[in-house]
Amino acid sequence: MQKKLTINDIARMAQVSKATVSRVLNRHSSVDPVLRERVMDIVQQYNFVPNTIATELANGRTHLIGVLAPPLNWPAIPEILHGVSEHIEHTRYEIVLYSMNLERNHSDVLDRILAMRMVSGLLAILPGELADHLDTFFQQGLPLVMIDDQKEPTHIPWVGIDNFASAYEATSYLLQLGHRRIAHIMGPQHYYCVVQRLEGYRQALTDAGLQADPELLFQGEFEPASGRRCAETIFAQDQSAWPDAIFVGNDQMAYGVLEVAEAQKIQVPEAVSIIGFDDNLLSAHMRPPLTTIHQPFTEMGYQATQLLLSMIDPNYQPDNEQPTRIQLPTHLVTRVSSASTHPFSLKT
């Protein structure tokens, strides 16, 4: 197999400097026409394709943006990345994806990635414990946008939702259906979104003249197994102590609740209404289909990419003026898993 030519090879064969070859390839007008022709004859003869990444790195810029993301099998990550790619395909930029292994500290990996200067900016999706480390790079001038609900938003450009208002809407919907004993299954309490969803749940109860019952609060881990565990605890009680509705902190845990209900032949929504949060792709296909709060994950990826490019490229024209904090609206998706306690008391 013929060895791929380098700029050094072209320079040696044309008997010019490497800098001259670089100027020819970048179409600098300062190059002597005779030297330009000599270089281009060799380039065309050997069908030389310049390494654009190396050229851009030498000039201190690239058309690559980094995307830092949790494992791709995490719910919502494919939808967010779809939004990123949907926007990127209309620009001259490409993405470099770095998927984080959750079992190790990633600060050293991130340091090495950014030290290579391969990317012009970084989109961090649910960076978790890396948020503080990323803040240091942002302070040093790295263009950076976060899609995050694990930490409270800071001065770093951010895209997300109002978790408090969304949880308030979910709980208010159950109250409107006539439910009064509404349980809540929470995610990990060190997540900012979990605290906000709990507060939204509590505020909706307070505004309805009810007090949040500590016995109706259950601790989950945002995974189906923890939803199953909480459901088993709930349904192990005497039926008179069951809640008549459960607001589950995310769809993954709600899947676990539905699984236990089906196994124990508990009718949903006749015996208990269930509502989730996220509207993952599987939620419409559960048994029964899950009522949930829809998060606009694809739009998050699109908007975050648009915001990042507006920070990187002075020639980039976004769809509209970009704020540094974008809070996207959610909405309630009603499906079969929730129903009124008095079917004929509500307008249809």
From TrEMBL:
Name by which UniProt lists this protein: LacI family transcriptional regulator
Keywords: DNA-binding, Transcription, Transcription regulation
Membrane spanning stretches: none
Pfam families in alphabetical order: LacI, Peripla_BP_3
InterPro entries per the UniProt record, alphabetical: HTH_LacI, LacI/GalR-like_sensor, Lambda_DNA-bd_dom_sf, Peripla_BP_I
Matches recorded under Gene3D superfamilies: 3.40.50.2300, lambda repressor-like DNA-binding domains (1.10.260.40)
Keyword Zinc in annotation: no
Coiled coil (residue ranges): none
Signal sequence coordinates: none
UniProt GO molecular function: DNA-binding transcription factor activity; transcription cis-regulatory region binding
Annotated ranges, domain HTH lacI-type: 5-59
PANTHER family assigned: HTH-TYPE TRANSCRIPTIONAL REGULATOR GALS, LACI-RELATED TRANSCRIPTIONAL REPRESSOR
